[in-house]
Amino acid sequence: MNSEQLIETAKALIVHKKGILAADESGNTIKKRFDSIGIASTEITRRDYRQMLFETEEIYSYISGIILFDETIRQASSDGDSLVSKIAAQGIIPGIKVDKGAKALAGSHGETITEGLDGLRERLEEYYELGARFTKWRGVLSIGNNLPTPYCVETNAHALARFAALSQEANLVPIVEPEVLMDGDHSIDACYDATSYVLREVYDHLARQNILLEGTLLKPNMVLSGKDATNRVNAGQVAEFTVKCLLETVPEQVPGIVFLSGGQSDEEATVNLSAINQVATEQCVPWQLSFSYGRGLQSAPLKAWAGSSDNLQSAQQSFYQRCKVTSLARQGLYNT
Ligand code: 13P
Predict the structure, then answer these.
(1) Which residues form the catalytic set?
(2) pLDDT of residue 58
(3) In this structure, which CATH number among 3.50.50.60, 3.20.20.70, 3.50.80.10, 3.90.190.20 belongs to the domain 3-330?
(4) Which atom of ligand 1 is nearest to the CA of 261?
């Protein structure tokens, strides 16, 4: 393991003004996204859509890294060059989602464990050869009646730490993503309690498995009230709760925290990120607070593209605009 390389890569991913595009939707997820605009998900439509994003001019001003799915890291663009080369041409760092998804956790009541550890060492070696310099693994936790359970939290934290150890061994920066879902009608206090508990367990397991924290990034949910809560809280409250939760649980050696958008609208995710950065600056937090958005960056350009090459220009304009405003939010400068 090359610690210096890991630390350099982590720093490059959270460099001033920039954040990460998560374009790593699995086959099922990208199908859902394409269903929403009424187009079929085929190898060609997936390629065209992602090529449109990666070839958007000058997104390197706002985007430091792009997380890919297994198919995409191996895929050629319409002109025959690899899609990875399109990313590298902009000086953007390619990354790869390496988990195999959340599956039913045996012996639990409806909770999940993220799979993909078997054979991971060999897959990581190959991904490095294909150009990846960082990895992502997402554990999923739900809030509900007595959920998440200690069983689910500990099992996922253990898997996240195993993934992180194997990634660092392969000189790939692990993005550790324990997502507490916003599904449900819970209060922001319930989200705060669950997120604090999950993050404490995650850092306990990372310490036990000798992870070099300086060569990792954390990808958490923001602390929010549930999607169906009667009292959706405002951005100021989201920022206060989120920064407090992170200050209490995330070690200062972690260089950066890159939030997921997690089902918020793009506007909500942007407003909240900006408020979080404003509060974080006031409180002199030790980490960079940036983004690693999927839907938060892609919802608008996906709609604008709508599966037709005629819409290429407007889709790219829309994507560029989302990157730009999210970068402003990452600096605490986005005001509606
Ligand atoms: P969203 O921003 O759409 O939540 O996607 C981020 C991600 O990579 C989830 O794993």
Answers:
(1) 177, 219
(2) 98
(3) 3.20.20.70
(4) 2
